[in-house]
Amino acid sequence: MSAPAHKKAKISSGGRLAATTTTQARELFPMSAWQDYRGHDDTSDEETDDYVESGDVDYDDGPEVFLLYEGGRSQRTSELNEGLLTIGEEAFEYCAVLSRVNIPSTVTNLGSCAFFGCTNLTEVMLNEGLQIIGGNAFSRCQSLRSVNVPLTVKELGAQAFCSCTNLTEVLLNGGPQTIKEMTFELCTSLRSVSLPSTTIALDKQTFCECTNLASVKLNDGLQTIGDWAFESCTELRSVTIPSSVIRLGYRAFSDCGNIAEALLNEGLQSIGRRAFQNCSALQSVTIPSTVTELSQSAFQDCSNLTEVIFLGGKRLLEQEFFARGLFSRECGLLDQGALNE
Questions:
Q1: Sorted alphabetically, which PANTHER family does this protein's record hold (predicted)?
Q2: Is 27 strand, coil or helix?
């Protein structure tokens, strides 16, 4: 770990690193990072010539100041100045009264759990220049209402915005190729999402249980929709799978009870097990000719599904459907019971 570019610090016993007041500072660390770097606990007066009073220690010679806040007792607004490069892991974790933060354009790395559990954080500004948003960075920020992910972000960590229950708007401007697992899971107020063409994969549970998600735009370029990606998005009424997508994962859209239209385009090769299970509003589906794998129970309990069109013709029908009894050769009718097996 590189040393912070400062000579003076104010450290409050039992606190967490939360803010810097100068442009000299380059990194924010949690308490554990100070111990790891110096090899001893900086809350003691070891190797200092300054006074110790009420648990505070001042290091000598320099105007640069780091502030350490005890969890839940930090100021409401945090001003982080230009020049800061890294906000370390857990830097503001559980700062319960923090309501607003502006991440400077010089910050390139936002560490894991940096703002985890900041339950009153309503506004965060992420500026161009940011490259990495770590896992759980804003998880359980239950008051956060919107987020604009800059174009410069190349990595969006797992569960980065998980359980942000008041998050209604997400702008993804391009950058990360993979939206990692559970990134927006349980964002129960999220109404719409549009994926940029730079996104090629959705990992598992990306938007799982976003129960108010009514509109999803999946752009060309996307290749994989992972397991449980949109499971239990109960307000979703239609979905169009781009021709670039080759795989729909296990339970990708299961329990989306209001999906009445699912447009699957040529290019799709694999429809995973239970991919559309319990999509009870779905009445018709067309299977592209490019599909070579239609897995078990893909449309299980789609109780209103009355029409399935196979663009692949006899090859797919004979190999996958007649053998499993999904159709009657004599009548050509869908056997709902066999479909559920």
A1: IG-LIKE DOMAIN-CONTAINING PROTEIN, SURFACE ANTIGEN
A2: strand
Q: Residue 147's pLDDT is what?
A: 96
Cα–Cα distance between 29 and 45 in angstroms, integer? Answer: 19
How far apart are alpha carbons 166 and 181 in whole angstroms?
Answer: 20
Strand partners, 239: 262
Q: Indicate if the pLDDT at residue 172 is higher than 80.
A: yes
Question: What does CATH list as the number for 177-341?
Answer: 3.80.10.10
One-letter amino acid of 159: Q
What average pLDDT does range 51-78 have in this prediction? Answer: 37
Name, in order, each residue with C-beta under 8 angstroms of 130's C-beta and a sequence gap of 6 or more.
103, 105, 107, 108, 110, 150, 152, 153
Tally of CB atoms within 10 A around 1: 10
Spacing of C-alpha 2 from chain mean position:
29
DSSP assignment letter at 276: T
Instruction: Spell out the residues 6+ positions from residue 32 whose beta carbon is closer than 8 angstroms to its own.
Output: none
d(Cα 134, Cα 114) in Å, to the nearest integer?
8
| pLDDT tens readout for residues 6-18 | 322 222 223 333 3
pLDDT of residue 200: 96
How many other CB atoms sit within 10 Å of the CB of residue 296? 10
User: Quick one: which H or E segment has residue 336?
Assistant: helix 336-339
Find the helix or strand (DSSP H, E) in which 286 lies: strand 284-287
209 phi, psi to nearest 5 deg: 60, 30
Q: Is residue 339 pLDDT above 80, yes or no?
A: no
Would you say 282 and 276 are in contact if contact means Cβ atoms under 8 Å apart? yes
Is this model's pTM higher than 0.85 or not?
Answer: no
Q: What is the mean pLDDT of residues 97-118?
A: 96
pLDDT at 80: 87
Q: How many CA atoms lie within 13 A of 326 on its CB side?
A: 25
